[in-house]
Amino acid sequence: MPQHYLHPLFNARSVAVFGASEREDSVAGILFRNLRHAGYKGEVYPVNPKHETVFGVRCYASASELPVVPELALIATPAPTVAQIMEACGQRGIRHAIVLSAGFSETGAQGTALEDGVKAAAKKHGIRFIG
User: Fold this and answer.
1) Which class does domain 7-126 fall in?
2) Domain parsing of the chain, residue ranges
3) Is the dihedral of CA 117, 123, 124, 125 positive or negative?
């Protein structure tokens, strides 16, 4: 039986966490830490151009530097950066994403424009995402 097209979104075997850091108040850092310590069995790749490692794990500067194409991107970065990250994910072949950022259409016209950019990048590359 063929796999459902949303299966990797909810059962990813590998995850890239965009924005990962060691800051205690960092959403992406918390996600990265929780995935590693809560029994997730897949590979977890921190992605942040500002760090060489995150909690002792090699950190990648961008999607293009990842050693594999992860099944899922967790994007927890400021709203103005998300469309560019979604575009980079699409270019790398990542087809599923969860966006954990605020500052989009809920904030008004400027946020709506940012959201439209994220949607356009996702549509261009066939990325299914929530958030």
Assistant:
1) alpha beta
2) 7-126
3) positive
Kindly compute the dihedral angle of the four CA atoms of residues 38, 57, 48, 115, in this order, to the nearest 10 degrees: -20
0.85 exceeded by pTM: yes
Q: What is the pLDDT of residues 33-47, one digit of tens each?
A: 999 999 899 999 999
Strand ranges inside the chain, DSSP E: 14-18, 43-47, 53-54, 57-58, 72-75, 96-99, 128-130
State the DSSP string of 71-98.
SEEEE-S-HHHHHHHHHHHHHHT--EEE
pLDDT digits (tens, 9 = 90+) for 105-119: 999 999 999 999 999
Per-residue pLDDT tens over the stretch 52-96: 999 999 999 999 999 999 999 999 999 999 999 999 999 999 999
Burial-class residue 85 by CB neighbours within 10 Å (0-12, 13-18, 19+).
buried
Structure tokens at 13: 């075997």
Instruction: State both tokens at 16.
Output: 């890239």
Tell me the C-alpha distance between 115 and 80, whole Å: 9
